[in-house]
Amino acid sequence: xxxxxxxxxxxxxxxxxxxxxxxxxxxxxxxxxxxxxxxxxxxxxxxxxxxxxxxxxxxxxxxxx
Length: 65
Description:
The protein is an alpha+beta fold and 65 residues long. It contains two helices and three strands. Strands 1-2-3 form a three-stranded antiparallel beta sheet, with helices on one face. The protein is globular, with a radius of gyration of 12 Å.
C-alpha cells in the first residue's frame, strides 16, 4: 500500500484507526493555504477533521457549510 499521508504536493485529509481498540491518527495539509496539522487519539482526530472541514480543504474549494 502506498503512503497516504498528505503533503504540500498532494494535499488532503488522512485518518487511520487500525482497530476498534487502537487510537485514531490523522493529518491534513490544506491545498488552499498550506496549513498542516496532525492528531493522535479519537477525540483529537475528530477535532482535526472538523477543523479541516470548517476552515481548510472544503472551505477553500467553496464547499464549506
